[in-house]
Amino acid sequence: MLENCKSARERWGGVSDMIDRWLHARQALLVRFCGLSENREVRDGDAQTEEAVQELCQLLMDYVSAGHFEVYEQLILEGKAFNDDAGLEKSRDLYRKIDATTDVAVDFNDKYLETDDLSSLPTDLSQLGEALESRFSSEDQMIAVLHTAHKNQLA
Fold first, then answer.
1. Do the beta carbons of residue 14 and residue 5 sit within 8 Å?
2. Does 5 map to a domain?
3. How close are the terminal C-alpha atoms of the chain, in Å?
């Protein structure tokens, strides 16, 4: 996608656009997550809640996939292009933290794709929320060390 760009500004500016779209997807995920988290009285057979959970799962998997298969890869390529050994080292530690949260997201998705039993949804949402908080913090740090840190070099 971004490999055909001619200049560093064009190349890494495209990464900025990709990150912006990804962060917009994060916001949509959070809106859906918060909407579900506010509902403390979850009943089995509640079609509206079941639909909201399915939408959350879709947003969650899209967000996680975009991170793993698009955004992180581009950030690492940028760090390599700018010979940012310190940033790349920090990103390895951050990626390990992010990767641990992926299991929580995938487990949540798998569970709620396979069941209409919503009895443990509040507890599962709480665990997912903790994982997402950790993930978002690590992702923000990765963006800072591998992308934002090079802005001045693009001018």
1. yes
2. no
3. 22
pTM score, whole prediction: 0.85
Identify the domain containing residue 120 by its residue range: 11-154
97 within domain boundaries? yes
In CATH, what number is assigned to the domain containing residue 95?
1.20.120.1370
What separation in angstroms does the CA of 19 have from each of 50, 67, 99? 30, 9, 18
CB 140 within 8 A of CB 107: no
To the nearest 10 degrees (0 to 180), the angle between helices 121-146 and 85-114 is 160
In a domain, 85, yes or no: yes
Q: What is the mean pLDDT of each run of 10 residues along the chain (155 residues)?
A: 40 69 94 88 78 95 96 91 92 96 97 87 95 96 84 59
Indicate whether 66 belongs to any domain: yes
**What is the per-residue pLDDT for 16?**
79
Number of domains making up the chain:
1
